[in-house]
Amino acid sequence: MQQNTRVVKYTAKDSVFSDLFRDKKYLLQLYQALHPEDKEATEDSLSDITINNVLVDGQYNDLGFMVRGKLMILTEAQSTWTMNIIVRALLYFAQSLQEHLDREGADLYGSRKVDLPESELYVIYTGDRKSHPAEVSLIEEFFKNKKSAVEVKVKMLYGTVNPKQTDGEDIIGQYVLFTKVFNEQLRIYGRTPEAIEETIRICMDQDILREYLASKRKEVVTMMMDLYDQDRIMEIHIASERKIAAEEAAETEKIKTIERMLRDGTLSIDKIALFVGVSVEEVREIESGMLQEA
User: Fold this and answer.
1) Which of 55, 67, 132, 197 has the lowest CB atom count within 10 Å?
2) How far apart are CA 174 and CA 177, in angstroms?
3) 294 CB neighbour count, 10 Å cutoff
């Protein structure tokens, strides 16, 4: 494969999720889908407070924003269902709250009670699953409903929030449909440019994120692709690290074998060296170290 061959990034949907809702126009649509009763919210009333890479070095889809004093946290779960998403939402919420209090200059050690924002936690699940709980609970899932000092409840989103609406999918539903189209094209074309182009074509034909994809088609393709040589460099790095680890483990085991044979005292140093495949000097050095430790 040539160095300029392009393949789909494994975090492709991550990039689109982050970029889509970084735009306040779509962020407002997201909030309106969650709170259609709030007719006064505007783009100016939204403040993006997303924390990048809150848990690990890799990119995860966690979105935080404020709406007139209300803290909204959204986390995306992809193909694998796991209740650990509750813990992730909790940690993201805790860090978002800490940064909010820092921005407000709140004194947690003062006598006056600090003002906390009303908060809502959501998970957008884009994978396939038979059961669709509306809400998941930390106490219920991790503590079998026993009393706990901490409780977290996360609302689950699987697509359009109000399936009875008649004017098409809301922005959440469109994003979930986008990921499903993308997954299907990956099954057909693999991680190739064709999978990306077909995803965009199908979504635009079906009015899925049409405006976003039409205005940022080139950027979307770029976000969802990666150069092969970058993947290759990572593969070489991982293989090298594994080789080094294996060599270190083998060396450690060799030393332990020599130490056991020296303690046994049955074989001479010359025969131990011959049996293990090392020099006599190495065996003597290990023996010297054992005597010093004793």
Assistant:
1) 132
2) 5
3) 5
Distance CA 99, CA 77 (A): 24
Residue ranges for the chain with pLDDT beneath 70:
1-14, 52-61, 78-79, 163-166, 226-237, 294
How would you class 218 by CB atoms within 10 Å of its CB: exposed for 0-12, middle for 13-18, buried for 19 or more? exposed
pLDDT at 5: 54
Residue type, 223: M
Tokens matching residue 79? 């193909």
What is the SS3 assignment for the chain? Answer: CCCCCEEECCCHHHHHHHHHHHCHHHHHHHHHHHCCCCCCCCHHHEEECCCCCCCCCCCCCEEEEEECCEEEEEEEECCCCCCHHHHHHHHHHHHHHHHHHHHHCCCCCCCCCCCCCEEEEEEEECCCCCCCCCEEEHHHHHCCCCCCCCCCEEEEECCCCCCCCCCCCCHHHHHHHHHHHHHHHHHHHCCCHHHHHHHHHHHHHCCCCHHHHHHCHHHHHHHCEEEHHHHHHHHHHHHHHHHHHHHHHHHHHHHHHHHHHHHHCCCCHHHHHHHHCCCHHHHHHHHHHHHHHC
At 101, the amino acid letter reads L
pLDDT of residue 52: 59
Q: How far apart are CA 294 and CA 292, in angstroms?
A: 5
Closest CA to 206 of 167, 168, 263: 168
